[in-house]
Specification:
By secondary structure, the chain is α+β, with helices and mostly antiparallel strands. Helix content is 32%, strand content 32%.
Length: 183
């Protein structure tokens, strides 16, 4: 009983110092080049550092969708209803599949979005930590603050695709920008 009380006290004490806006009870690690979240974080950092230039500069979703299709993206790309200005996009290739990335901006803050077809996840071509996907399946959205930074990541499904946003906005700022309605 003393051990249980001690552990409970420790957890309550440490919980008070944890940022309440993150899922502090989940300790998720995203490792490996075949992990969607790991790739999203790396791509966001490359964007921030100027090492991921946009291949198509446009604020028009139709133009960007046409660009994705012309570059070999063979799945429909869906844009979230977000109060941010579309900047453009990039096409990459992973395991022979062309993948869509696009960037929004809010003031001087980037909102990087990586969208892949669900079959990439279902076929295990791209991995997601099982706990994160469990949260997406139960709650529709998985949010986290990047370890060692103030960056925010959100993971969710949009129609037939899995999406990840990474941004240098705080969680509350990003959640205020994203609307449930899809376009």
């Amino acid at each position: 009983l003393g051990i249980i009380i001690g552990i409970s006290g420790y957890l309550l004490y440490n919980q008070s110092s944890v940022d309440s806006e993150i899922f502090s009870y989940v300790n998720i690690t995203h490792k490996g080049n075949d992990n969607l979240c790991f790739q999203a974080y790396n791509n966001f950092h490359s964007l921030e550092n100027g090492n991921l230039p946009l291949q198509m500069l446009t604020n028009n979703k139709d133009e960007l969708s046409k660009f994705f299709k012309e570059k070999g993206v063979n799945y429909p790309v869906f844009y979230p209803d977000i109060d941010a200005e579309l900047q453009g996009g990039v096409v990459s290739e992973f395991k022979g599949v062309k993948l869509a990335h696009f960037v929004f901006k809010v003031g001087d803050k980037f909102v990087y979005m990586y969208e892949v077809p669900n079959q990439m996840i279902d076929n295990h071509n791209l991995q997601i930590n099982p706990k994160a996907i469990e949260i997406v399946n139960k709650a529709d959205w998985y949010w986290e603050k990047e370890k060692g930074s103030n960056n925010t990541m959100v993971l969710w499904r949009i129609k037939s695709n899995m999406c990840s946003i990474v941004t240098n906005l705080r969680m509350d700022q990003l959640s205020a920008l994203i609307h449930v309605k899809e376009s």
